[in-house]
Amino acid sequence: MRPEHLQPADLQDAHLCGFVQLVEALGSETNLAIAIDDLSVHAKVSADLTYAIAEKSGWRLDSSKLYLFDRESGDALLHAY
User: Fold this and answer.
1) Which long-range contacts (CB under 8 A, 24 or more apart) does 23-29 make?
2) Which pTM was predicted?
């Protein structure tokens, strides 16, 4: 999943919930690193949205943009096209 395919969501409607680790403002967009369990997930959001370090945040996934790969071989198992 690409960072721009994660969409902010209310915590009760989210597919994933985590805590903001990094906020990088880049003009018209903001890059975020979010800790979800033992993973670090990256999201790209509009600069109009504000996040703080350690803030709990919710995220929705667009399943049509999801790609799955075999950990051993790296072969694609599922892709959007």
Assistant:
1) 23/51, 23/52, 23/53
2) 0.81
Tell me the fold of 3-78. Answer: OB fold (Dihydrolipoamide Acetyltransferase, E2P) (2.40.50)
Q: Is 74 exposed, middle or buried (0-12, 13-18, 19+ CB in 10 A)?
A: exposed
56 class by beta-carbon count within 10 Å (0-12 exposed, 13-18 middle, 19+ buried): exposed
The total of other beta-carbon atoms located within 10 Å of residue 57's CB is 22
Half-sphere CA count of 26, side-chain side, radius 13 A:
11
Tens of pLDDT, residue by residue over 39-60, are 999 999 999 999 999 999 999 9
